[in-house]
Design goal:
The structure holds 2 protein chains of 2 kinds.
Chain A lengths: L4 E9 L5 E10 L4 E5 L6 H8 L9 E4 L2 E2 L5 H10 E4 L3 H4 L5 H11 L4 H14 L15 H13 L5 E5 L7 H12 L4 E6 L2 H7 L2 E6 L2 E7 H6 L1 H6 L19
Parallel strand pairs in A: 3-8, 3-9, 6-7, 7-8
Antiparallel strand pairs in A: 1-2, 1-4, 4-5, 9-10
Helix pairs in contact in A: 4-5, 4-6, 5-6, 6-7
Chain B lengths: L15 H4 L2 H17 L5 H17 L4 H8 L3 H8 L1 H4 L4 E4 L2 E4 H27 L2 H10 L4 H30 L11 H27 L16 H23 L1
Antiparallel strand pairs in B: 1-2
The chains are: A alpha/beta, B mainly alpha.
Chain lengths: 253, 253
């Protein structure tokens, strides 16, 4: 089966000369849920923006379900942006339309979906994150947790091949955090979750990779990585006080 | 489209005027204002007729006179300018309460006050019966350039967030003992304005990236809506058509 995501030897330096990625190799199989762990400044967000061709120009290749990301080919980029659903960290950056339903419709409408089909997509995506009853509300009036779930719906409406979440648990209260986890666990898509919230990675993702200084430095089952204190310490990752990964029930078991 | 935007200008109830499509009301308001403005200033009967018309429109929209009057005070700074005209004007003069007033200046002041008030009242009836969201949609359907409607859409969405940001920054300033009493103490306030601008600028960048990720190509999707019926156009045309009738009759006499 074609992997959902295949990155080979990806390099990137920002125009000001700061080097962000120095040879990233990563393959994510269809239906997998993988956590991308790393300290602040490791290059996580830079890597995410490569997945749909917003950043490009360094060396290396990115393939989404077999299709190469080539920013010069506009038609292909449109298809890539359908396949890769990125949920950004701040839902206020993502939700810009005056109502929830219009925002969820934005992505599929850009793909040319119209009329009853568009309405059906909106209903389906909002139902998937359990937010159907806020469809006509103003995003600004929702709670932060609700806005994050609506942000997930805005990319689900594009029926992505891979869902990319940038710090999905940040700023959520424990109940919103659990609700989002339940939503994510029920979705039948490949998930790449960028985070430094290690317990959340353990809860949701059977596999994790650690990105530091622009390259993948570790790749393995999440419980194994989190049990390796020296590895975590070397890459500025820390478990919360009192958290024991061996005692927690990891994802998939 | 019942976006729950709370606004000082919109009255959230139902009336025949509320139900008219936004584009019909916009066209009616603009035409009415044009008729008012081109009417010669000495046609006092015509202005009385226009005033009756706008009162009738407000009554049909179930807008209370007090609400209209309070919000019409926005024109005061402009009308104040007109007060100076009778004193400063040239030509034939009349004496009233011991003051020597220019006849031409009196006509000029009346011209500004009458036309300004009628225009403001017409705009208020439009704003009171149409949500911001519908106004922008109406302008869009009237083929107003996309740049303007998109700017207005984003302003509508992000103004609340910006105001919240500013409020939080103010509270943070006050919490650290900032209490400006003299002009040279406004530096912190001025720097906050700069910081707010930078925040808005950076958010704009992030919003744009998030939009690109969902396939944005420079055009916002237009919500599907039934076209305006001939009956609705006719109902909206009542206001400017009657005004034009009054203008023609009074000028020809």
């Amino acid at each position: 089966m074609t992997p959902s995501l295949r990155i080979q030897d990806l390099h990137y330096a920002y125009p000001d000369g700061s080097v962000a990625l120095t040879g990233v190799d990563l393959t994510v199989g269809a239906g997998e849920r993988v956590a991308l762990l790393g300290p602040n400044g490791a290059g996580k967000t830079t890597l995410v923006l490569h997945l749909n061709g917003i950043l490009h120009g360094g060396g290396g290749t990115v393939e989404i379900a077999g299709a190469r990301v080539d920013p010069r080919d506009r038609a292909a980029v449109a298809e890539i942006r359908r396949r890769v659903g990125i949920v950004f960290q701040d839902p206020d950056d993502q939700l810009f339309m005056p109502t929830v339903a219009e925002d969820v419709a934005f992505g599929p409408a850009n793909l040319g979906v119209r009329g009853p089909e568009l309405a059906a997509r909106v209903d389906e995506a909002l139902a998937a994150v359990d937010m159907s009853d806020v469809r006509d509300q103003v995003p600004h009036h929702l709670s932060f947790g609700q806005r994050r779930r609506v942000a997930v719906a805005t990319v689900l409406a594009m029926r992505p091949e891979i869902l990319v979440l940038d710090e999905p648990s940040s700023n959520l209260d424990p109940a919103s955090r659990r609700e989002l986890a339940e939503v994510l666990q029920g979705l039948p898509v490949t998930v790449l979750m960028v985070t430094h919230d290690l317990p959340y990675a353990l809860q949701l993702c059977p596999r994790s990779v650690i990105l530091d200084a622009g390259r993948i430095v570790a790749d393995g089952p999440t419980p194994d990585l989190l049990a390796d204190r020296e590895l975590l310490h070397a890459h500025r990752l820390e478990l919360p006080f009192g958290f024991d990964p061996a005692a927690a029930r990891p994802a998939g078991n | 489209m019942g976006a729950g935007h709370t606004s000082v200008l919109h009255l959230d109830h139902d009336s025949p005027v509320h139900r008219l499509p936004a584009e019909a009301k916009i066209v009616a308001m603009v035409l009415y204002t044009v008729v008012v403005v081109v009417t010669p200033r000495a046609e006092f009967a015509a202005f009385a007729g226009y005033a009756l018309l706008i009162v009738a429109a407000a009554a049909a929209a179930r807008i209370r006179p007090g609400w209209l009057a309070r919000r019409a005070t926005i024109e005061l700074p402009f009308v104040l300018l007109a007060v100076a005209l009778p004193f400063a004007g040239h030509g034939e003069r009349v004496t009233w309460l011991g003051m020597s007033l220019s006849v031409d200046g009196l006509y000029g002041a009346w011209n500004i006050a009458a036309k300004g008030t009628l225009g403001v009242l017409a705009s208020l009836v439009l704003a009171g019966t149409t949500t911001m969201r519908d106004l922008i949609g109406g302008l869009d359907r009237l083929h107003c350039p996309v740049v303007f409607t998109q700017i207005a859409t984003f302003m509508l969405r992000y103004l609340d967030i910006l105001v919240d940001d500013a409020r939080r920054m103010r509270i943070a300033r006050l919490s650290r003992g900032y209490d400006p009493r003299f002009l040279w103490q406004v530096k912190a306030f001025a720097i906050s304005i700069g910081a707010l601008f930078l925040r808005a600028f950076e958010r704009g960048e992030r919003v744009y990236l998030a939009m690109l990720s969902r396939g944005y190509t420079g055009r916002l999707p237009r919500p599907d809506r039934a076209p305006v019926t001939a009956g609705q156009w006719a109902a909206a045309a009542l206001l400017p058509a009657t005004a034009a009738g009054i203008a023609v009759v009074t000028v020809l006499q």
